[in-house]
Records
---
Amino acid sequence: MEYKSPLPQRLREARTRKGISQRELGVRLGMEPSSASGRMNHYEKGRHSPDFPTLKRMADELGVPIAFFFAEDEVSAELIDLIAKLSEKEKKKLISELTKSLS
């Protein structure tokens, strides 16, 4: 069984949620304006995968954690995004509450 990376879909989702074009995202990441749209299109189509430093810059620019790009389903992606926005104290409280509910 072949598994497809969720990265292309998540990248497109985060970019459109931010309301920017492929070209604009690429330019913000430091790509040449003439090739930015094409490069981003290749990432969103799954033809190429960005290296880790590029992926980190994408995540920072789009306001999502890197883990968001690898969530296998929509609910997990949303949870990852929401959890990343919590403070460390709130994250620890959530872990405690989840641990209790799963026991």
---
Amino acid sequence: VNRKFKEFLEKYVPNIDKLPKEKKIIYQIRSELAHGVDIMLSDRDPSSFMSGPLHISQDQLHRATYEIVAAALINWLYDQ
């Protein structure tokens, strides 16, 4: 699964290697979600908008990875 996910991102997000921090974080998030390790605060309590430093940090992470995920999905759809 990890290999296929990595191949998917490398195929559909051509500039993914220019964003090594975000790439690593996306892999980590995918793994944590798949294994039930953790979920983001906004998923646990959507009404707690920006209620502390961890939430703000996770929001910045979400914004940083959003463009990568959007590019991957759009490029995958075009490929279909």
---
Amino acid sequence: MADPFSVTGSAVGVISLGLTVCHGLLAYYGQFKAFHEQIDEVTDRMATLESILKTLQHVLVNSHVLSTRETSSSASVAIDSILKCHEGLKKLKRMLEKCDATKSERSSTSHNKQISRLLYPFRRDTLMALTETMSCLQVNLNTSLQVLNM
């Protein structure tokens, strides 16, 4: 079995990535929240995901869940669930990078390129993909939080 502290450290790293991505996407979409119902849903889900990640980070950093024999196997299951969220968070990070790219494209001289880049984050399929990814992450992370707060 892997060292419990290194596994916990990996889980904290995944959570840190999630918080960074949530913060960036909230900053990007938050300014447009009033424009569309789907954007409202994305920002609400992102805020909830960020809240879950902060709570998990607090629990993992400030608790001794792994130190007791009775809770170590449950904590291991919870941490595995957190680690499985890494791919979903990387997917959100790639979306954030595309959003950030639209900011840098604003200074481009090509008007058509600018418009198409600006519209990327607001396309229906993009918003639906964000919502789906966040929903999956929330389910996994909520389960981990429940197990760790036993």
